[in-house]
Description:
Helix content: 10-25%
Order of helices and strands: EEEEEHEHHEEHEHEHEEEEEEEEEH
CATH class of the largest domain: Alpha Beta
Protein name: Succinylglutamate desuccinylase
Keywords: Hydrolase, Metal-binding, Zinc
Radius of gyration: 21 Å
Largest sheet: 13 strands, mixed
Structural class: alpha+beta
CATH superfamily of the largest domain: Zn peptidases
Cofactor: Zn(2+)
Pfam families: AstE_AspA_cat
GO molecular function, one term: hydrolase activity, acting on carbon-nitrogen (but not peptide) bonds, in linear amides
Amino acid sequence: MARAPYEIAGTQVKAGTRQTVEVPVAKLYTHTPLHIPVEVVHGRRSGPVLMVCGAIHGDEINGVEIVRRVLTNSALRHLRGTLVAVPIVNIFGFVQRTRYLPDRRDLNRCFPGSESGSLGGRIAYLLRTQIMERVTHIIDLHTGAVHRFNLPQIRAELKNPETVRMAEAFGAPIIINSGLREGSLRAYADSQDIPVITFEGGEALRFDDVVIGSGVKGVIRVMRELEMIPAKKGPKAPRKRSETAANSQWVRADIDGIMRPVARLGQKVRKGQRLAMVADPFGESETAVVSPCSGIVICVNNLPLVNEGEAIYHVARFDELSEAEKAMDYFRSSYEGDVGDDVVPVHPWDDRQK
């Protein structure tokens, strides 16, 4: 018996086909219509329905490229289940190259949304009713904020075994057991018992090939784990791929000034170790920024101009720091063959530079 079509926004996608669906979302004040583009790949055989979405913050563009590359993967020819790819959720912010909606609301604080609410509420309602209520799993793709570069990492509420399964399958070096924020896509999905993980990597408005590559590989690994696509031939890698952090802590500047970073992204640091120096333009006053704990640097502020209290480093703490080191070593080694020798030595998360 043939599998039933997948319906979205009044369009039926037949089993064994793929189709781009333009979901109408709103109009500009110029009367120009805006749509959220959705690519549906509907397999011939039944299976999970996975939503992969990017740019819920309009300036977080790495996720858009991750979705594009996933959609070109040849393994999708053997898809079991359905892939619902939404590369650009916040179409308003994406067009304007900004994180927020025109009314300055954060779309990722507007769920579950309302048909008659704010612009953000209406978009959240549309995404929820047209897509989210009919999926079984979700991968939400993000980057750091402007000037903040995130090490590739997974954030998830790890109380759900299926969520843990997805997080570990993704293969990012670091997993953060992250609480849920009211109004977020992740919080709504969790309330509906939909397993959801968030991938973080890179910074806003910048492409990074290693981040994008790790995101693409991660999505494909999750799809293999869910048996949506065939398993990779050959033995599984014996080395450690991911380690879950016990917690994490932001490190803030104690004075205003110009920052000179010392610690690098992905580097192991010890409690009390110097992360950066902050000085005035004349060098008359200079203060060291030190790590409050031992751990791995998972985010760096790349803007040298800092104000007092500004977050400049994010350090993840682990019960077994040596295991986190193994995960980072595996991550580095898995990309050394994918980029040129001229790139690897200067990459921001290569802590072998001195």
